[in-house]
Amino acid sequence: MALCVLVFGWIQAQTDLPTQKPLKIDAVNPIDNSGKTNSGAVLNIPSMIKEQPKLDMTTRNPVKMLPDEELVQAGTGLKIDPRIGPGERLNGSGQFFPDQYLGDIKSNGKFVGIVCRDHEYVDGDRVKIYVNDMVVEPNMLLTGAFKGVNVDLQPGFNKIDFEALNHGSSAPNTAQVDVYDENGQLLYSNKWLLSSGSKATLIVTKD
């Protein structure tokens, strides 16, 4: 009797074992690059690829801040005398000094000595000297001391021009001019105030 119970218990234990079932895995749908969301049995995966925006560099921007007729070029209508140097317009006295006639003298010598200097603040004034429209000194720097040239005199009128090449650091171009005869005697003395490009003219007459 005891044997039968043992055998029955062993048979019952064999029948209680769980049965195994295979796990079914469905295939995942591939990702669609068109931008649409794909649906599947397991996961919904949105597309990660987006179309890049296109830039048109050939089309001009039509935006305008002001109408065309209201856009005015800077300096329109401004009139500036071209003979006035930049420093005179910006930080000079603002006054224009035109050509100046220094007068006329007589001398029967072979030549005269003409000297000039800056009679005010020495600021780098420079002049060009002409005799009868011929350049005899192209670039003379005016200092506190006299500088000059000897001018041979022709019978009749001898025109001597002093052209202001600049006005230094302070407008205008300023100078004192003295004229001596061949013996060293002072014949004439005067001063000029010139803007850049202006001329001071002196006439020496020889009989």
Write a structural description.
- The protein has 207 residues and is mainly beta.
- The chain has helices spanning 2-15, 86-90; strands at residues 100-106, 111-117, 126-131, 134-141, 147-152, 156-164, 173-180, 186-194, 199-206.
- The strands form 2 sheets. A 5-stranded mixed sheet has the order 1-9-6-3-4, with no helix packed on it.
- Strand 3 (126-131) and strand 4 (134-141) form a beta hairpin.
- The chain starts with a helix and ends with a strand.
- This is Secreted protein.
Rg, Å, rounded: 52 Å
**What is the CATH architecture descriptor of the domain at 100-206?**
Sandwich
Low-confidence stretches: 1-11, 84-91
Main-sheet strand order equals 1-9-6-3-4
CATH topology of the domain at 100-206: Lipoxygenase-1
Q: Characterize the main sheet.
A: 5 strands, mixed
Distance between the termini: 178 Å
